[in-house]
Amino acid sequence: MNSFKECVKLDEDQVHAFSYSSMAYCALQTNDFKSSVEFSKNGVYDIWNLSNGGQAYYNLGDFDAAINNFNKVLELDANNKWAHHEKGKALFSLKKYEEADKCFSKVVELDSNYKWAYQERGKTKVELKKYSDAIDDFTKVIDLDPNYKWAYKEKGDLLFLMDKFELSKDVYLKAFEIDEDYCLKCSISINLAIIQHLNKNFEEADGLYKRCKQFYINKKNLVLYYNEILCSKKLNSALTSENELYEKGLKEVLIEALITRGKIEHYKPNGDFDELYSINDLSKAIEIDPSAYLAYFYRSKIYLNSHYDSYSFENGINDLEACLKIERYVPALIKLSSLSNDESLKIDLITEAIKIDSKNSLAWQYYGDYLFKSEKYKEALESYIESNSIDSDGWILKRIADCYINLMDSKKAIDFLSRAIIDINWKEEWHYDLAQLYLKSNKIDLAKETIFNAIKIEGYEKYFDTLEVILKAKFHPENYPKLSKDFDNYFKKVNLSKYYSYDDKISEYEYLSSYEKTITADEETIFTVMNFFNDDTLNKIIENGNKITIQQLIDNPSINIPEEIINEYEKANEMEINFYYYLNIKKVVNENQTLIHKEHGELEGCFRLYTFNDVFRKHTSFNAEEAKTLINNENWEVSYSLDDYDSPRISYSSIDKPELLNIICNTDEDGEDYEEVEETVIIIHKGNEYDLNEFITPLNDLNFEELYNLKKSEVEGVLFKVEVNDGDSEIEYTKENIQSFDSIKF
Asked: Which are the contacts of 703, defined by CB distance < 8 A and separation ≥ 6?
């Protein structure tokens, strides 16, 4: 789109018009139909641009304008099937079914395999009540595309409309095989359930009704509720339309269906509550039967919901009282008791509810609430325990815990409050109360863990005050004087709560970035004892903190640091120990000075003696135990490789020059030279020409065990320098201070 707009700026000729055509297409593809129409007006007068404009008009609901565009396309190409098809859809939307039928028939004439034309013509035939022709069209679509689910729906719905239920059932079942989810969200599933219902297949029908109700698109279908109730009563007089419900429906079932639909929350297209929809249903039920007490009760709940625009306390109370005049309905008694300001009336209503239904857990709970408010904790506890025995959940368990707190029984209070939090763990106040109980019971670790749970949910200031008390109880000032002072400064100087900010306090990160400079690795610090830091603070510390701080955070099991960050940190701070040796490789010949080659065996007549002087060997270790072993063995054997230099070729003429000087180099891990050594080769040779590499057996780089066990008769080595790199610094030890190697901390 932006590129085409740029074209318009740069060129005012035909390219300009083409760009507008392209912009019209882009706008159409992004559902910006208004812009598509405007761009199309300035575009090229051709089939593509006119078609895009017509499509945009159609999507805007301007069907006459759409038809005008498609007519222009047909002036340019009288046999453009797509234009005939889209024009037919626009005519259909204007309910000009005869003209639409002609358009779709023209498409079929132009392309007998164009399934969409048969589909749209079939729908048009239905409106023209030419049912047989419509069935033929839908059947043709299925023949062309056996998986075209929309054709099965239209054909099945038409057969259902014609009361040909068995034929309709077969079509619907095939659609279910193709796309079950689609069927459950449209008329297929409800109609199929009705067919099963009429055939007295109550179990199958009931299952389908219930599955349909899972989708919001079906929640306003009164037929669904009505038939489901009939099905539960094993009555097979299912109805197919809402009009039939009012004309032929059973009065008591219709009322129940209206109440069932009315008590459900409905929503408008914009997502707002549509409580008037429910109010209308419940009012209709009352209109049909003024003694429908459940309709009064559920309507009162809507009026008493302050989230609704129709909130009215007065109307809600009136409906509750109207309900109770008809029936002493226990939920209405409970609700009215909770709203009454008359304490005596509250007790009378709730005790009446319990008398009517002694197994109503909510009634016992409300009764306990009234007693608790009156500080009758023992009586309230009995009521709560009765409620809990009927139906246990976190709310009633918390009420029981509150009673035990007031009765000074901390052990039972902890038990019930812990169980309540298991069921409902998002109530930060409950965690706070439990932390207080643990603290009073001297269970400091549990108190610490629990108060952090409260802070993670909501960081209120009083929670941090309690945390300070708990930490000082765990790390007593007498045993941890510095840490205790750290706590004083931390809680005094830092803005910890997101709900409170003081000008004389600083951010958590600002304080901790200064604090970390005062700590050592072997002491308890704020970083080792805290269970929780602000996410932003933790991220900044990990990114900018010093080595001691980050290591303490990693070692703190309560701080959740991502594994990838830990791995990256450990890799960056991995200790590397490099050992440097002075080597003297004396000889690799037998006593008779006859070379024994490991692969070729003895090569007769070939004698050689060679030595290496001033050769340096570097061995690197990342293992602390291995490093200590190497350090404690100053003089022992190491390996040396002859692989990394070009050997001179030796010929008979070399006898005249028995000493050949060759410069060889050790290389580091990147292949760069780091030490030059001199090699003196003394040769006694006679015979054919040989490659030196065939005779010298390389002493390849060995692993630790091989290195440690190498025989002194082959190579002598002296450790003369050790470098220790711990990620932050590099320390060098030489032969002169070799005794201090043992002091290295790994």
From this structure: none
Contact (Cβ atoms closer than 8 angstroms) between residue 613 and residue 584 = yes
Query: Rounded to an integer, what distance in angstroms lies between the CA atom of residue 94 and that of residue 92?
Result: 5
Joined together, the tokens standing for residue 425 give: 């763990």
SS3 of 482-535: the string is HHHHHHHHHHHHECCCCCCCCCCCECHHHHHHHHHHHCCCCCCCHHHHCCCCCH
Which has more confidence, 551 or 631? 551
In whole angstroms, what is the distance from residue 70 CA to residue 83 CA? 5
- Using an 8 Å Cβ cutoff, are 679 and 662 in contact? yes
| pLDDT level of residue 543 (50, 70, 90 thresholds) | confident
Q: How far apart are the first and last CA of the chain?
A: 63
Bridge partner list, 602: 596
For residue 573, the model assigns a pLDDT of 65
* Domains recognised in the chain with CATH numbers: 1-78 (1.25.40.10), 146-249 (1.25.40.10), 259-327 (1.25.40), 394-571 (1.25.40.10), 576-743 (no CATH)
- The beta-carbon contacts of 675-681 under 8 Å, at least 24 apart in sequence, are 675/616, 675/618, 677/612, 677/613, 677/614, 677/615, 677/616, 678/613, 678/614, 679/610, 679/612, 679/613, 679/645, 680/610, 680/611, 680/612, 680/613, 681/608, 681/610, 681/648
Q: What are phi and psi of 399, to 5 degrees?
A: -65, -40
Q: What are the Cα distances from residue 101, in Å, to 130, 132, 241?
A: 11, 15, 28
Question: Whose CA is closest to 42, among 14, 82, 74, 72?
Answer: 14
β 673-685/659-667 pair status:
antiparallel
Tens-digit pLDDT profile for residues 406-455? 999 999 999 999 999 999 999 999 999 999 999 999 999 999 999 999 99
For residue 657, what pLDDT is reported?
A: 35
User: Could you give the dihedral angle defined by the CA atoms of residues 176, 180, 182 and 184, in that order, rounded to the nearest 10 degrees?
Assistant: 90
Taking the C-alpha atoms of residue 185 and residue 218, their distance in angstroms, rounded to an integer, is 7
Rounded-to-integer distance, Cα 630 and Cα 738, Å:
12
pLDDT of residue 642: 33
Instruction: Give CA–CA dist 104/116, Å, rounded.
Output: 9
Could you tell me the pTM of the whole model? 0.62
CB-count burial class (<10 Å; 0-12, 13-18, 19+) for 410: middle
Lowest mean pLDDT among 305-309, 310-314, 641-645: 641-645
pLDDT at 577 exceeding the cut of 50: yes
Q: Mean pLDDT score of the chain, rounded to an integer? A: 80
Q: What does the angle CA 451 – CA 455 – CA 457 come to, to the nearest 5 degrees? A: 120
How far are the Cα atoms of 36, 264, 283, 302, 533 from residue 310, in angstroms, in the given order? 42, 16, 14, 8, 45
Q: How far apart are CA 123 and CA 121, in angstroms?
A: 5
Distance CA 484, CA 492 (A): 12
Q: How many alpha carbons lie under 13 Å from residue 745 in its C-beta half-sphere?
A: 2
What are the residues whose beta carbons fall under 8 Å from the beta carbon of 643, sequence distance 6 or more?
Answer: 698, 700
- For residue 610, the cross-strand partners are 681
